Every structure is written in structure tokens, then in C-alpha cells.
């Protein structure tokens, strides 16, 4: 029989909705009576749960709860985009915690609760039936939205912490917490305090929190609501449309990985990195910064500052990677705009006399790459390396071109080539040894040279 089942609600046509629900219920009943699963996933059930009539909805929720109550060996359960009402959510979780208390190690409740928190206050009796996280002692990983359900599961176990600590060993080590302001607002929540998270750390000493925030135009109040002291955040994934403030990292003393995504302009991120140059968070190891739509000339100074600060932080040992999201064509257009901006800025800063032909050539660099291919396919090193031999051919300043032509004709007609063959294995050569410079601890004091020959 089955051991792993994925049930995906992809029925979008109203004319097929009734048949789909009927077959879904029949399949659940077969699983209930004939199988003991190891894992089950309910995906995208909102495509029909949000559109069926109340009696059918109530029946499906009851069948899901009965199915979960019949399973004694489930190790992994996932709900993604199901959107149950609060009473049905509580009943499903209650049945799940009772039947899989000893077996469940992975639980995902993303987009599990249908958002409409204004009515949740009327379900105080249902809230009392919510299981606590401690009712699943073998749970290792929990992925969930920051919701009324999550708040209550944590708050209720805080009230009973002494009983829990004295009675059992708990193993929750990873908590992945999502907040999407498209569905929720901080006004809907009571807020978990630093005290709540302190109790969580006592219950779960190895707990690591990954916080994923997706918002439009963030406010400092919003960040301070979710990021509080004692919260053991090790990874913060922060996506916003406009970044205009720094992220307070003092409350994230265990933060190892920070991922930022925003849309240009990027004022605020470069300021954040500048503060890290003086006071870098001690635990931070990896930073990924994704910036979209850096096209306009007004965006270049901020992007240049960001990349400059990132380069310095790399030298300080931080693994940091700023990225600008563009397609290949968009990268070329962006590079050309950036090079034009560089030349124009050089004129403003230093004057026209410094804009040489080489400086002007920057403007056409992108066109050359488009025409000839990447730079490594059109290297000028062989030609420039041969210039040293041409220079030796010219003996005086008068008529240099004629001298080169005459000497080359002599060389071509000679039996022996003027230039001896080069043994590549002999190069590079280190020349002019000395003992004047300060040394690294690992360096050999007998090997200092002032020049190198390739």
C-alpha cells in the first residue's frame, strides 16, 4: 500500500468541483481504512475549499481530521495553501497531535489558516483546544506562518513551562516562520514577547529560527514586532519593495545568514553595510543582497557604494554577494549605462583634459563584447607581450616605422630567428633578491624579490 501521498487540489472549474470533492472524500476514506502512511501533503486545497458550499466544506474538513486521527506512524505532514477556518484548523491539529504524538518529526502549516482574524475572538472555546508545541515531543522541524494559531500554541506552552520541563525531553531544532503582509497585518496579533522566546529557548535549547518576511513598504514598527530579543534567529530572509531603513541586528545575536531583496532605489542598504564596516555583527557569516531594476543613472551611485562596501566586507572575512537581477541583454544595457556614467563623472570630477582616447574607449567596450564575444576570447596579451621585441628593434627615434620594417625583413630572410625560443616552464622568473621588506609569518626570509619576469 501507499507510504507517501501528495494530494494536490488543482480543480479550478466549477463544473468539475462537485465530482472532485466526491472523489477526494472517497480517497480519504480508503486511506483511513486501509493504510498507515509515513508522510502526507495537502497542497493548494484552497482552489476548492474557498468555493464550495458550507455543508461540503464541513464534510471535507471532518474527513481530513478523521483520516489524520487514523494514522499512527506519520513522520511528515504538510499543509500548503489550504486556508481552513479557525475551528476546523484547531480540530485538524488536535486530531493530528493526538494520533502522531510519538512519530511526527516534520510539520508544515503554510497558508493553513484562512485570514479573517477579526472573528477569531468569538472562538475562545476552540482556542482552548489548540495543542501546544510540547504535545509533539519528537517534532524536529516546524514551518508555519506567523498566525493566531502559532501565537497561541507558543503562549499556551509558556504558561505550562514548568510542568513541561519536568516531564519530557523536547527536540524541536528548526522553526521556519513566514510573514506575508498581503494576508495579515500586525494589528491582528498579540505579539510574542522576549519572555515568550526566552521560554522557547529553555524548552528547546538547540532551536534555530529562520524568519522569512515579505512586505511592501516596511516600517520599523513592523520589524520590531517580529524581531525581538531572545529570538534565536539564524537566518533572516527579508523581501520588500522599498528599503529605506536599516535592520536592527542587535536583537539577532545568532544571525548567520541574511538575505535581502528589494527594488531600486537602494538607499538604506548601502548605509547598513557602511555601519558594518565599523561594527559588524559577530555571528553573521553570509549575506546575499538581490536588487532589481537598477537601470537609471540616478541608481548608480547607490549601487556603486553598495558594491564598494561589500568588497571591503569581503576583505574582512564576510561572505557577501550583491546581485542585480537582469537578463543577459539587460546586463549589457546596464553595463553600458554604468560605463557612460563613469566617463561623464570623470569629466565632472577631473575635467575634460583627463578624458583620453583610452577613457573614451570604455563607452564602446560593451559593443566590442557584443561583436567579438567575451573578453577572454579577444585577449590582447599576445600582441602586447610581443611589443617588447618590437621596441628592441628600434635603435633611435628617427624613422621608427622604417626601422621596424627593415629589421623584420632581415629577420624573415635570416636562417636563424632573431628571438630565441621560449621555454614556458622556465617562467615566471623571480629576479633581484633582497631582504628589505617586512615579512609575513609564513614567508621564507630567503625568498624576497623586487621583480618578476613572465
Question: Your description of this structure?
Answer:
With 454 residues, this protein is an alpha/beta fold. The protein has a domain at 330-418. It is 41% helix and 17% strand. The protein has 16 helices and 13 strands. It has helices at 14-34, 46-49, 54-70, 86-99, 124-127, 148-159, 161-167, 194-203, 220-226, 269-278, 300-315, 328-350, 357-361, 365-372, 381-393, 400-413, and strands spanning 4-8, 39-43, 76-80, 106-110, 141-145, 174-180, 208-214, 233-239, 257-263, 286-292, 319-325, 429-433, 449-453. It has an eleven-stranded parallel beta sheet, with helices on one face. The chain has a two-stranded antiparallel ribbon with strand order 12-13. The radius of gyration is 33 Å and the shape is elongated.
